[in-house]
Specification:
Length: 319
Amino acid sequence: MAFRVDLSYNSFSGTIPYSWKNLGLNYINLWSNRLSGEVSLHFSNLNQLENMNLGENEFSGTIPILISQDLEVVILRANQFEGTIPPQLFDLHILFHLDLANNKLSGSLPHCVYNLTQMDTDHVYGWYPTTIDLFTKGQDYMYRVSPRRRTIDLPANSLSGEVPLELFRLVQVQTLNLSHNKHGSLNFLEVLNLSCNNFDGKIPIGTQLQSFNVSSYIGNPKLCGAPLNNCTITEENPKTALPSTENEDDESIKESLYLRTGVGFAAGFWGICGSLFLIRKWRHAYFRFIYGIGDKLYVTLTVIMHFTVCASEFMFHLL
């Protein structure tokens, strides 16, 4: 009997329980936790495992070698795995998604007879019952895993050496990412033919890629950059951009003036009120001053009212 474990998107820490190796798991998803430790021994007996997702954790050590031959998905992204990539990963005949990005892997890619049949033929051996939707922190995009999209994702490691030719025989691979490694720059190519594909974007500058003629890139309508020189770059006219800059400066000055005025008012207000609140003599003097003004106003109003009454009576007698 096979079991599924899905503990993704939690804050679990510690290590994987050693007893899990006897559960007969076929699906394990621990994505986005704080789990740590080595995992090599935990997967030695999981012969029915089809999906292994340990991404976004703090696992260390080497990548497990004794793993199930039924694996379809292997996600070890964003951990601290080190050492070389074991050749056993490229001998899984039904694997369609391999993600080892953002680790500490080194060395070169394995030179071996690649047996990733799922990535080499049109036939899909089995349809995984559900796709996996993963939302990577800070990027807000959906990371969909599906047998219809075969993926090898190995960026942000310390891989070096030459890329084996066997890797390019996996003709059904739709996503191959080897960026941010130490494979070196291209300075030894004599022949390059990338024609009649669906490449898009701009050809990287500062590399040997600009030394080939246009025929190396034909048949890629969305590809641009030297030597194609068909990128559409809109540059602003400095004369038309100047008023915008002046307006931005005016707005900045206004905002600065408002800010300084507000800060000055707040400082003055709390400077006076704070002093009255904290200094007892000032507070008493302030209230005596207020009471004195009140007394003077009272006397003044009384005299005015008395004078008004007397004047009214005098005018009455004259009439």
